[in-house]
Amino acid sequence: MNILVINAGSSSLKYQVIDMNNEQILAKGNCERIGIDGAVTHKTSDDRIFESNFDLPSHKDAFRILSSLLVDKKYGVVNSLKEISAVGHRVVQGAEEFKSSVIVTDEVLKKIESLSVLAPLHNSASVEAIRACQATFDNSTPQVVVFDTSFHQTIPEKAYLYGFPYECYEKYRVRKYGFHGTSHRYVSKRVEKILGKPPESLKIVSCHLGNGSSICAILNGKSIDTTMGLTPLDGVIMGTRTGNVDPSCVTFLMNQMQYNAHDMDIFMNKKSGLFGISGISSDYRDIKKAADSGNKRAKIALDMLSYQIRKGIASSAVAMDGIDVLIFTGGIGENSHCLREDICNHLNVFGIEINKMANAETIHGKEGIISTENSKVSVCIIPTNEELMIAKDALKLTTGNLHL
Ligand code: ADP
Asked: DSSP 3-state assignment of 391?
């Protein structure tokens, strides 16, 4: 059973073909610069690599190239598109309409489109990609949508409401939705493999730390709070995003800098965060290198990151009245043992103790436990795999196999 997983942005379309019999990736690739000019990279598990520039005016054109690559004599991984059992699409915003993954129907597409006001760039691109995919696969292959927000639909009212008048929630749907749900769900389920205990019996704090970062409190297998909010701008400081700030800073700076809402949105999402503080880069590795060679602003940026993550972990633990497991995932969480050490060394209040050697060795895609025998909390490194989670949902919904 092969599943095609699609992650579509407004100008890109990332894909993976996963053989669900062994959960191995057969091929993955990216169609980039859609609507600009167009570039395609495609790589198979046995290292057959295709790279070329193509005219890609729309997602439809990207699917045309992608589908021909999948069956290509030289670069293909299936004999015919019929060997793709289902397609799973990542969708950013499902709001309260989608509490779990669903099979695509016309009504589902209309609902996703209607949520575009909450995620203008992302949801419209997803709908465009799904329609293009339906046309390519001739409607004969089932399509499933998996939302970044669904996992967080179990967050209670007291945690998802903001202190605006209640009408803002009713009329404008302003509330915390949370993101990275597929990643938090995947890593929390993996805990069972690593610790031999089901997530349903645990208090888990999951830290997804990448270009975008969020921390999630998972009680008995369900998200009960997370740091991201109405949008992925909230929470801890990120590559180019501010994270949480006093809301008055926004109006104050708009006045000072004569920015309109759009300018301010770009400023907070693209020009701020670790990049804005360090003045060097949004990439953790560049900032670490600069901090190690004495750059003060780079050092402050990293101190802010560690401090805010610690506070995020602590508030997640308080939300659950305890913590049994702490998970690190995402590009930074999976690789930066220095940051993990710094964070964990400041969490004595929870009885967290890590093994330095195990921590330093568990990088580059390795999964493992880095806490000591004495630690009151199990600290786990779990490389995330959102694509596999999407593929599992697609398979489950289209074959009815609920034991996946
Ligand atoms: P995204 O949120 O875009 O999916 P990733 O999860 O890939 O991002 O994370 C990107 C971040 O991970 C970057 O800040 C990058 O510097 C960091 N990162 C990647 N590899 C390493 C590494 N070996 N050591 C430290 N940080 C790393």
From this structure: helix
Q: Ligand 1, from 183, 288, 336, 361: best to mutate by most atoms within 8 Å of Cβ? A: 336
161-217 pLDDT, tens digit per residue, is 999 999 999 999 999 999 999 999 999 999 999 999 999 999 999 999 999 999 999
Query: Alpha helix locations (H) across 86-207?
Result: 106-114, 120-136, 157-160, 166-172, 181-195
CA 212 – ligand 1 centroid, Å: 9
pLDDT interval class at 400 (50, 70, 90): confident
Q: Are 316 and 225 in contact (CB under 8 A)?
A: yes
Q: Which amino acid is at 49?
A: I
User: Burial, 2: exposed, middle or buried (Cβ in 10 Å; 0-12, 13-18, 19+)?
Assistant: buried
Please, what is the Cα angle at 330 between 229 and 36, to 5 degrees? 80
Cα 217 to ligand 1 centre (Å):
22
pTM score, whole prediction: 0.96
Distance (Å) from CA 239 to ligand 1 centroid: 10
- Token representation of residue 238: 């990120």
Terminal CA-CA length for the chain? 13
8 Å CB contact between 21 and 7: no
Report which DSSP code applies to 80.
Answer: S
Which atom of ligand 1 has the smallest separation from the CA of 285?
16
Task: Name the token pair of 52.
Answer: 């070329």
Q: Which tens digits make up the pLDDT trace of 348-381?
A: 999 999 999 999 999 999 999 999 999 999 999 9
Query: Catalytic amino acids?
Result: 148
Q: pLDDT per residue over 37-78, tens digit each?
A: 999 999 999 999 999 998 999 999 999 999 999 999 999 999
Sheet holding 39-44, edge to edge: 49-53, 39-44, 24-32, 13-19, 2-8, 84-91, 143-147, 102-103
Give the atom of ligand 1 at the shortest distance from the alpha carbon of 212.
2
Q: Which amino acid is at 337?
A: H
Q: 218-233 burial, b for 16+ CB within 10 Å, e for fewer?
A: bbebbbbbbbbbbbbb
Who lines ligand 1 at CB under 6 A?
Answer: 210-212, 239, 283-285, 330-332, 335-336
Q: 265: buried, middle or exposed (CB in 10 Å: 19+, 13-18, 0-12)?
A: middle
